[in-house]
């Protein structure tokens, strides 16, 4: 098992199907609608569009992780030091946010809807609970993105 497998809660490649599907609400925020290419999850994700540009049709890898430590050791989620010389999972990604799961809802047929907030930027991930079973209510986590 690779070291990143111990910290990764979920990973898939998503294709952006729409930007701001319900209209642009905030000047510096885009809401991405995307579909997972492997697990066919549906994603709505707010990103700061001033620092990370994404276009409709882009493909990107999305990872949900419990820690940025490569050895899987827990971090306290408050003392991340971006200028540290210690390598982290974030080194391999273009855009990283930290947040908390605020709702996990279960629908019929084994579908789960996960809602998270990253400092007010929201994520909703909908998919088969077999692929999302590592994500628990009220847990702190990181979302990491890189374009493919």
The H-and-E topology, N to C, reads as HEEEEEEEHE
- The CATH architecture designation is Beta Barrel
CATH topology: OB fold (Dihydrolipoamide Acetyltransferase, E2P)
Shape: globular
CATH superfamily: Nucleic acid-binding proteins
Domains (count): 1
Please give a structural write-up:
There is one protein chain. The chain is mainly beta and about 150 residues long. It has a single domain, classed as Nucleic acid-binding proteins (OB fold (Dihydrolipoamide Acetyltransferase, E2P)), CATH 2.40.50.140. The protein has helices at about 5, 130; strands spanning about 10-20, 30-35, 40-50, 60-65, 95-105, 110-120, 120-130, 140-145. The two termini are about 25 Å apart.
Give the SSE layout.
Blueprint: H1 3-7, E1 8-19, E2 29-36, E3 42-48, E4 59-65, E5 95-106, E6 111-118, E7 121-128, H2 129-132, E8 140-147
Antiparallel strand pairs: 1-2, 1-4, 2-3, 3-7, 4-8, 5-6, 5-8, 6-7
What are the defining features of this structure?
8-stranded antiparallel barrel, globular, NA-bd_OB-fold, 47% strand, 148 residues, OB fold (Dihydrolipoamide Acetyltransferase, E2P), nucleus, 2 helices, DNA-directed RNA polymerase activity
Summarize the structure.
The chain is mainly beta and 148 residues long.
